[in-house]
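Re: your question from the hallway

Yes, I did run it. Sequences:
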Amino acid sequence: MSQKSFREALNEAMRDEMRRDPTVILLGEDIAGGMGSGGEQDAWGGVLGATKGLMPEFGRERVYDTPISESAFIGAAAGAAATGLRPVAQLMFVDFFGVCGDQIINQMAKFRYMFGGKATTPVVIRTLFGAGTRAASQHSQCLYPIMTHIPGLKVVIPSSPYEAKGLMTQAIRDDDPVIFFEHKAMFDDKEEVPDEPYTIPFGVARTVREGKDVTVVAIGRMVGFAKTAADALAKDGIDCTVLDPRTTSPLDSDAIVASVRKTGRLVVVDEASPRCGMASDISAIVAEQAFDALKAPIKRVMPPHSPVPFAPNLEDAYIPGVDAISAGIRAVMGVK
Amino acid sequence: MKIDKEQLLAGYRIMRTIRDFEERVHKEFMTGQIPGFVHLYAGEEASAAAVCLQLGDADTVASTHRGHGHAIAKGCDVKAMMLEIYGREGGLCAGKGGSMHIADLDVGMLGANGIVGGGPPLVCGAAITAKTLKTGGLSVAFFGDGAFNQGTTLESMNFARVYDLPVLFVLEDNGYAESTSSSWSIGGHNPVRRAEGFGIPGERVDGHDFFAVYRAAEDAIAAIRKGEGPRFIHIQFTRYYGHFEGDASTYKPANQVKDERRYLDALKFFRARTTAGTMLKNEDLDAIDAEVEALIDTAVREAKAAPAPDVSTLTTDVYLSY
Ligand SMILES: Cc1ncc(C[n+]2csc(CCOP(=O)(O)OP(=O)(O)O)c2C)c(N)n1
Ligand SMILES: [Mg+2]
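Structure:
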């Protein structure tokens, strides 16, 4: 056990799985850095440094630092997975899904079903997401609702370094295609993380905080914000449960519904665009399965239906923050 | 090559404006006042300047994440650009785009681009518009060596050839895509031959030499305007700064960066070449230097003093009608 950053947690998970299993390979742009240049290889270790040190340890046979050709290398990861390897490919920012979407939604996601159960495609697509770094409209989206929409893809969104390591290890060992979302504003977050490998199963929500008045379901970076809001509201006598689904596909709807049955109130906090998103999806499930338990209308806390703006004050207004979450919780409690 | 004194001075002014703009943004970025991701074009000025100098109002350009130079060369307002980079009210894109999305369709600048390889298809579209509406315009795709390996770029080259579109493909090869060397990433190591494989005539030029780029662009543009379809230019040069502001360039040998500035400087070459004989006088260029310095100074001062955009604009312009 030691204090590790989100970045270090991911690095350890990939490193340990590569040591354990020779079929695990990495692909992605600048994941080592310095290919063909006078500078040392491993100059970058990925844009946020999560793959640092892996090229020196595992070499060019296992680490493919690629040209800027997302369709080719994301598709190659799918092809390699279907034929015997366990590739972990980095789609640098999830926004670039726009470039290689076919290989993800039409190819890897559907092999097993289309081929009558004969294909196994154990591929992980790691990808950066989320707002908060002034990176503007084409480098700040969430897009996990789009992936969650596609049958055949598993979708993982870790909310802390501990979660990142356990879920990444599980993702690499999992036999289905996994899209692994890493919030770029969380890479320096630190907490106690075990040194040895461990897995966190998919489809099992984490209870971050237990309370009797309101169920707050939050995703990714929003989990930390929701906990902060809930801790503060406890002083005002509002007692919240905070649930982190960890994976949106599979989704632990049982845990969410069971919690709402206890509290009678639901707030869903989602950083993704509001239409057809996880907040809507989770709200619909609860409305369908626990309508009778609800003491107040469901509240969704989300950004507006707009691209992510550049100007800092606009971006800050865009992102659902602690204040917006507190207001949402107060609203379902019927207090100002 | 046909270029008169007025054109020469205009070309120099563009290059000097780009250089000063970028040097200043570099300096200001270090003070922490410029948000987000900034990719500087210093060292690459001759490409944007020598190409855009030969374009008219009916012509369009699509740029990259390294877009300030193309924007300045195509005539975007420098003060509004600075406001945009600071994320302020009155910015060229109302503070919503920032450095990576600098654009002004009113002057035929179709946008910097956060997506590598995002521009070439757009340029094909602009060329179709020019053909359909008979504007006589052509469209230029500026893209990097990294983008030259993107499917969108290669598809666009074939597309432009199939329809004989008035498109100029300008490969800006600064040696690196982030930390990856272009001598490694471009398979076959011969971009001109790659273009020729698509049936597009091309040539390679030294991007530190304004005159070499000007001449190549002049030939290419003349052929395109005659209706001969797309052309390709491979421009080789260097970027002075890291991939983005904050990149320590550890993949470049340390003395390379210093030597680049010393020996590979389009502005120095331009001055030496034009003032050696009777073409231009040093005073002509000095006067431009002084004017540009004052302009950039004002732009930065105004940007720093400007208010942030009103928060109510967060949800405007998502659509035209709701
Ligand atoms: C589709 C896509 N892939 C990757 C990136 C990340 N990225 C931004 S710039 C860049 C390098 C581009 O290199 P090049 O085309 O040579 O342009 P340069 O930066 O050298 O001007 C990369 C990989 C991106 N923005 N878009
Ligand atoms: Mg480059």
